Amino acid sequence: MFNKRIRIKELLAQAPTGQEVVVMGWVRSFRNNQFIALNDGSTNNNLQVVVTLGSQDDDLIKRITNSASLKITGTLVPSLGKGQKMDLNASMIEILGDSDAEKYPIQLKNRPSLEFLREVAHLRFRTNTFGSVFRVRHALAFAVHKFFNDKGFVYMHTPIITGSDAEGAGELFKVTALPFDNTPRNDKDEVDFTKDFFGKATNLTVSGQLEGELGATAFGDIYTFGPTFRAENSNTTRHLAEFWMIEPEMAFYDLEDNMNLAEEFIRYIIKYAIDNNREDLEFLAQRLADEEKQLPQDKRSEMGLMEKLGFVLNNNFERITYTEAIDILRESNHNKKKKFQYPITGWGMDLQSEHERWLVEKHFKKPVILSNYPKEIKAFYMRQNDDEKTVAAMDILAPGIGEIVGGSQREERLDKLEARMKEMHVPSEELWWYLDTRRFGTVPHAGFGLGFERMVQFVTGMTNIRDVIAFPRTPGSAEF
RNA sequence: UCCUGCUUAGCUCAGUUGGUUAGAGCAUCUGACUGUUAAUCAGAGGGUCGUAGGUUCAAGUCCUACAGCAGGAGCCA
After folding, report:
1. Which nucleotides of B are covered by protein (CB under 7 A)?
2. Helix (H, G, I), strand (E, B) or coil at A247
3. Is residue A307 located within the same domain as residue A456?
4. Is residue A387 one of the residues assigned to a domain?
5. Is A76 helix (H, G, I), strand (E, B) or coil?
6. Per-residue flag: A411 CB under 7 A of strand B
7. Where are the alpha helices (DSSP H) in A230-364?
8. What is the CATH number of the domain that holds A59?
9. CATH number of A233's domain
10. Contacts with A21 (C-beta within 8 Å, 6 or more apart), sequence order
């Protein structure tokens, strides 16, 4: 019977009145042959277990090593020491699993680096930092579902394997059941995918949006939350080959409705994490503050993590159009002193990340929603504005992370959509099903995609995206 | 993919202008101690200096290539 155990988080909330309890967890430290700091993953706070001298066999004491797993029965009493409210006086200690101290790779006293912990990602959850990060990640994921569920959205599972490469977002991972050493060939000596498992070339999804639109034009409001794959050779602190994306899609929404929802959504999930995981966030805030002490003054954040999150909750995002952004950039002293590596050449240029960072981090100092971009630099499905130069797109840029949301009002007018697809060489035959939504009861609609890991980065203050997903997939790396 | 930097003990790092047997802290092991809080104290073991070449009387140190990692850029979420 393991179910008698009480989680340490619950236990620490109780009054220690000599009650008998059973706890199970992993040894974080064993001091003085007498004090076990036991952690069970429910909180970073350890339970101090007191082993009375001579009450246990020496053999058993020797097996209480770093990360060994224990079952302990004892009585909960007020602590005689200063570091904690209560002690568990152990009456029975059972070793569930030994941990060879010479081989266990993580010595907490050594302050192992994040880079090293990535190499032992299977064990890094047993550290305070990753304990906090992944509990917060869970809270954010749960809040995503709660937010949309409470608003009556339908959670839609869009396919992981897709048969079209027309989505136009990045390099694709191919999915095939063909043998690599003897692929069937057609008369043009190309690989003959009609012989493949699905009878056509298939890939891992780069976005559920197009399928999401099919749902939205029936249910009204849907969202997806699933894995997404990009075979881009990106080696940065904010890109993964496999990441999780949330893509709501709403019928009867215009661009402004879309922006309002995105902003409300981001605020909601941040607030949920603060309300439910304040301790973890405070721990991460302290960790970040300690880390930033190593940095030169000009690279440190102006706000601590908790302040930053509070600020986002209490201040509206700045909303400007692309055209206004270009004007602000052009008129800025930063530009006039020629401090941008990429000059502001004028309307129509694509913004470089240094421009976005300057707008967000130096000029507005808060999240910014940029909207109505030139149609030339955006995707085919975005709704064309009346000026015939711009589309109803919007990106939300967050300090320190960059683009966290990309979305748009979708082009619901069949003739305009088909014309744009032709101009951009998007094969409309392959997307016949997508165009059908515009043929049969088309409606104004909009949606956005939010990169979940980037959101987790923003909330936890972790600077590398590989430290907010359990087992990161990046170019050259798919361990675990 | 491009640019820059890094790679020395299990971890985090020193290592001078190229010059004896490559160091420290922590971890580990052994012992001591016992109300500790990253416990403490004493002792011990632990290294093909990323890999392969090259220069030199002599290379951890200089040069070349490659690999891995990190940061920045591009692409994007």
Report:
1. 1-2, 10-13, 25-29, 33-39, 68-77
2. strand
3. yes
4. yes
5. strand
6. no
7. 255-276, 278-292, 305-314, 322-331, 333-336, 353-357
8. 2.40.50.140
9. 3.30.930.10
10. A6, A11, A73, A74, A75, A76, A88
| Full domain range(s) for residue A32 | 8-104
Tens-level pLDDT at each residue, chain A (480 residues): 677 899 999 999 999 999 999 999 999 999 999 999 999 999 999 999 999 988 888 889 999 999 999 999 999 999 999 889 999 999 999 999 999 998 999 988 888 999 999 999 999 999 999 999 999 999 999 999 999 999 999 999 999 999 876 555 568 899 999 998 888 998 888 889 999 999 998 999 999 999 999 999 999 999 999 999 999 999 999 999 999 999 999 999 999 999 999 999 999 999 999 999 999 999 999 999 988 887 767 777 778 899 999 999 999 999 999 999 999 999 999 998 888 888 898 899 999 989 999 999 889 989 999 999 999 999 999 999 999 999 999 999 998 888 999 999 999 999 999 999 999 988 888 899 999 999 999 999 999 999 999 999 999 999 999 999 999 999 988 888
Nucleotide whose C1' lies closest to the alpha carbon of residue A116: B11
In a domain? residue A17: yes
How many residues does this entry show for chain A? 480
Last residue within a domain, chosen from A104, A139, A172: A104
Residue type, A35: F
* Domain co-membership, A92 together with A143: no
| Residues A261 and A337 occupy one common structural domain | yes
> How far in angstroms lies nucleotide B3's C1' from the CA of residue A31?
49
Q: Could you tell me the pTM of the whole model?
A: 0.94
Tokens of A303: 């706000």
From the C1' of B74, which residue's alpha carbon is nearest?
A234
Q: What is residue A438's three-state secondary structure?
A: helix
Q: Are A133 and A32 part of one and the same domain?
A: no
Residue A476 lies in a domain: no
Q: Is A200 among the domain residues? A: no
The gap between A133 CA and B7 C1' (Å) is: 28
Domain count, chain A: 2
Could you tell me if A360 and A226 lie in one domain?
yes
User: Which residue is associated with the tokens 């396919």?
Assistant: A159
